[in-house]
């Protein structure tokens, strides 16, 4: 078994050093996809021991993850763990995600709410609604479908790399639908997450609301087709 970290990062110079060093303690190789940063994210990540892949322009989280997964497969990884570059994800839970893939899951999603995570009422309500619709569709309870802390087995990587969606939230939520339609096994794993250490969110409040509405419409369309694969 060869494991890899895939870390999409945009302007995360304040946190990326710690993220890379933590990932290196738990995984065999670390890929940071510098998605068009205008700060020192890439150089800091390389100094910390990551293999850095540079997107000259910002392409979005989905394409960055796909780039990292492709690099992981090329390096011979059989399991890849996606982590955010902002320090939210606790490396101590990497082993829990990996163990689910070793046990037969194709995609393991780290869910933050079982172990407690502070979040405003409006945002939490939207995630609950999305979670309910996703869980209904794929037949697996996923309390945190927007989580970017997840582990991919070889089948999930090979299936999803060519179709990884670009838009915000699609890179987490819609991927679960694509995995289900490809008959991949998805499991949820409680993990601990913290608030971001530095940088800023990739989407503002209004843009996040627009993406959430788009995802809800996508989910409703998928559910309307029935639960068959």
Quick structural gist:
This protein has 229 residues and is α/β, with parallel strands linked by helices. The protein is built from eight helices and seven strands, in the order βαβαβαβαβαβααβα. The chain has a single domain, classed as Spore Coat Polysaccharide Biosynthesis Protein SpsA, Chain A (Alpha-Beta Complex).
Write up this protein.
The protein is α/β, with parallel strands linked by helices and about 230 residues long. The protein has one domain: Spore Coat Polysaccharide Biosynthesis Protein SpsA, Chain A (Alpha-Beta Complex). It has eight helices and seven strands, in the order βαβαβαβαβαβααβα. It has helices spanning about 15-25, 40-50, 60-75, 95-100, 120-140, 155-160, 170-180, 205-225, and strands at about 5-10, 30-35, 50-55, 80, 105-110, 150-155, 185-190. It has a seven-stranded mixed sheet, with helices on both faces. The longest helix has 20 residues, at about 205-225. It is globular and about 50 Å long.
């Amino acid at each position: 078994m060869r494991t890899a970290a895939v870390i999409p990062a945009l302007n995360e110079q304040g946190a990326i050093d710690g993220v890379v060093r933590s990932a290196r303690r738990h995984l065999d190789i670390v890929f940071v996809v510098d998605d068009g940063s205008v700060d020192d994210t890439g150089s800091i990540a390389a100094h910390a021991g990551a293999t850095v892949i540079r997107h000259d322009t910002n392409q979005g989280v989905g394409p960055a993850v796909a780039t990292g997964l492709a690099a992981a497969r090329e390096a011979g990884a059989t399991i890849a763990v996606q982590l955010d570059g902002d320090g939210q994800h606790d490396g101590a839970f990497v082993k829990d995600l990996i163990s689910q893939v070793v046990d037969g899951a194709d995609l393991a999603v780290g869910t933050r709410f079982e172990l407690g995570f502070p979040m405003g009422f409006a945002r939490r309500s939207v995630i609950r609604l999305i979670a309910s619709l996703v869980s209904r569709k794929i037949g697996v309870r996923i309390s945190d479908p927007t989580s970017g802390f997840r582990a991919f087995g070889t089948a999930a990587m090979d299936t999803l790399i060519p179709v990884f969606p670009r838009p915000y939230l699609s890179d987490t939520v819609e991927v679960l639908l694509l995995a289900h339609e490809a008959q991949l096994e998805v499991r949820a794993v409680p993990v601990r997450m913290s608030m971001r250490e530095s940088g800023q969110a990739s989407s503002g409040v209004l843009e996040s609301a627009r993406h959430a509405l788009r995802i809800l419409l996508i989910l409703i369309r998928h559910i309307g087709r029935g639960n068959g694969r």
